[in-house]
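note to self: dont lose this again. the chain is below, predicted strucutre after it. 593 aa total, dont forget to put it in the shared folder this time
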Amino acid sequence: MKKVDKKTLLRVWDYLKFYKMKFFGSILLTIAMTILNVLEPFVIGFAITEIGRNVSDMLKGVEGAGINYDYLAKVLLIYFIRALLYQATNLYSQLFMTDVVQEAMHDLRKDLSDKLNRLPIAYFDRNQFGDILSKVTNDVDSIANALQQSLLQVLNAVLGITFALIMMFTISWKLAVAMVVLIPVASVLSQKITQLSQPYFRGQAKYLGQLNGFVQESLTGFSIIKLYGKEEDVYADFHSINDSLKKNGFKAAFISGLLSPAVALVTNASYILIAVLGILQAIAGAMTIGNVQAMVQYVWQVNQPISTITQLSAIIQSAASSIQRVFDLLDEEEEMQGAVKASLPKEIRGDVTFENVSFSYDKENPLIKNFNINVKSGETVAIVGPTGAGKTTMINLLMRFYEVDSGAIKIDGHDTKELTRADLRSQFGMVLQDAWLYKDTITGNIRFGKLDATFEEVVDAATTANVHHFIQTLGAGYDTVINQEASNISLGQKQLLTIARAFIADPKILILDEATSSVDTRLEALIQKAMKRIMQGRTSFVIAHRLSTIRDADLILVMDQGEIIEHGKHAELLERKGFYYDLYTSQFKNESE
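---
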């Protein structure tokens, strides 16, 4: 997995800087809080020194000796005011930073969402949906938790160490020097352990993304897994990924967990050293007893922040890996817009031309070579051929999901590479084999093709698509909510709704990709009837395995290995008794058997 880049980590500031007033306000309050915390042993030291002096005078029999309650009351009042200010600065520093982090993460999620919409189809072909989802959810949450929980604590720790050392030098530079010598020991230990654990944190983030992707795919195809009895195979694959996640997670947690006892060892050693040296100086009269206890407390205030940083190490390292993954996604190459040299008029004819188009997913294995067709407005073009012949690829090129390697695709004479993708795709309507609907009402799903459509237009589209009667049989009619998996309606009904969605968009060019391949004969006839209605007056590209559905096409293109090997009308192709004839007769032979 890619190593975490320090420059990438600093890019988080690009999101925090928009809220820099509250951010720096939180920093200033944290500084004030740290100073107030550092003053605690110093203030208490005055009280302890005074009590020690009073007790010593009483033991010596000094006349009028006793506890100086007035002085102690003043010291305690100062201590109480300091405590109130400390809690107030702590509260508001956390409040401001929480607001900054949540706003910044809101912006980051928004940018990720926008980025996903600008990525090419090829990116989603290469990456698991679950892993992409993990970057947008788990990784962003990891960054938010680290910033919210760790940023101020680390700052507080660094400032606490600095101010505590300043106070120690103020009280006794000799003891302070002894303390300074021990700090690098803890620092070196922390650095070495962090270097050992970081690769495992990166691996943990990687395998967590893979696990999310695998679970998402397994749940989507759960019924198929059950049908073919592949539960054990799926479990084995899950176990392999889960085991890798466990091993990386254990090593990351265990190695980073060594930081706390390692630093504790240095802390205990420093306690003993400072306590012994302080007592010796107090006996020699070089220090007051109050300053000795202050120095011991400052040892805690130096070592406790170091311990805090080590405890936060796991969160920080996990967030560093998440930052790298998130910004890697944001840095992915987007769909090339190219130079916009032309724009389509609001009303186009719908002429489509492929001129010597060549394309390959893999440069070493050409798929489409010197592809040429000329489709006139309103014509229906059927594309047939065996699996892998290049039928769907041709549609992907027409929609500019992929860019052609050479040649040109033209709409009404305009090269699609000179148009914006939004301008180009606004002229198309698509009905695919996989009928995609989302969790919303039936009205909302149909209106997806035209967001400002009136209810009357929705009903008209549903009627044209032969789905109006079915909708009326539902309890809530057009207000029926389709669930997240669209499993509360049948596949054929989903297909009819997607046809209604395509119709309401009123496209000039229509693409029907295996729209009837997964339905029964009765529904096929119903869908065919709906398709004929919406195809009227539109240039249509129909990909079909059931050759009986494309008999009336104006032009049939027979493809094999990326090339058009035959073309013509249905009757003409049958008369030639070529490749199409073999496909057609073999299909009907299989169906009759």
